[in-house]
Request: fold
Amino acid sequence: MSSNHDHDHGHNHDHEHGSELSEMQLRVRALETILTEKGYVDPAALDSIIETYETKVGPHIGAQVVARAWADSGFREALLADASKAIAQLGLQQKVGDHLVAVENTPTTHNMIVCTLCSCYPWDLLGLPPAWYKSAPYRARTVKEPRKVLADFGVTLPDETKVRVWDSTAETRFIVLPMRPAATEGWSEEKLAELVTRDSMIGTGLPKAANEVQA
Amino acid sequence: MNGVHDMGGMDGFGKVAPDPHEVSFHDEWQAHSFALNRIMGSAGEWNIDVGRYWIETLPPAVYLSSSYYKKWFLRLERLCLDRGLVSEAELASGHSSGPGRPLKRKPLSGPQAGVGLTRANHDQPPRAPAAFEVGQKVRARNIHPRSHTRLPRFARGHFGTIERIQGCHTFPDAMVGKGIEQGEWLYTVVFDGRELWGPDAEDGATVSIEAFEPYLEPA
Reply:
């Protein structure tokens, strides 16, 4: 949506769109116009930020990290010890910030990430959070009834698996390192990354099974 | 503050509704609300904690009934008014009536502003050694400050265990309450579900919070 955005803020927008503008369109536009006229906001920066989060930053970054951890035990250990440092050394095109923490799923522990107080989420690795992550039901229920929340995602865990919920109440940001699916021995990192879903890195889903990815 | 934003453990909101056709922004104004917040948030006039507080202090009914990026917009509008960056008259007219004032920092600018944009670092130099160690039993203090805090209500008064020491970070309560960057040790504290929810907990569940040292007392 940013590519055809008109920088001529405050002029002729009604005519451009040819339809009645919503209250929020009008209010955002008014504030944006004022902040731009005062020189605080550079429209080019605004477009660049929108474009970055719409097209460049997303779960594919986290998937690369998970695939590397599955393929390289040395990297896995470094990731679990200090995720920001380990990921910085991968030299990914999109940089990641500090205070990232990777938590590992095992046959006995399943991790889930939530932010009960707002919407803290590992943007640098997963992009902007999905609407459900920011919603009242997810924020309210995950700390109290995580298995029932998982059921809303169609996920059922073995009874013996313990669920661990991480509430992101400070500036640490969490990503789940899911378990590597069976029958993927010898797969390339690129192919392993195809198994990694966004939800599997939040803990509300599991990675795809080997037979869900084209050989 | 004991606000409606502090949702952990509340009932009655219904099912979680994943959307397989999720998009980042449903409308252009949402994308603009997001980017305007990022730009103005980079000007040093307020930090992330202050920004959160100005969402938490929206009237509860507004908070609950507004979409995510509407809340972001309302926060930005209120902060810009409070900090004298815009006036009510300007918002009403939709135009600036005079030049801006100098900002504390030059905000993000230029066509590459989004590239390589990452979160800020929140480390602070420690003022004292960490008071707690990994494995130590602690109790989350039973506190109910009227200002900003990141100690969720569901944990207050409950006993948990220090699992990790995450370093020394900017203390949100002091940032909002006193306007100072005060370093405090940050811990991952894990609670047993039964400790938090009693017999209504799910079997085997544990919950951790990221707790600043002033939120904790020895058990």
Chain B touches chain A through 96 residues (CB under 8 Å). The beta strands of chain B are 137-140, 159-170, 183-192, 206-212, 216-218.
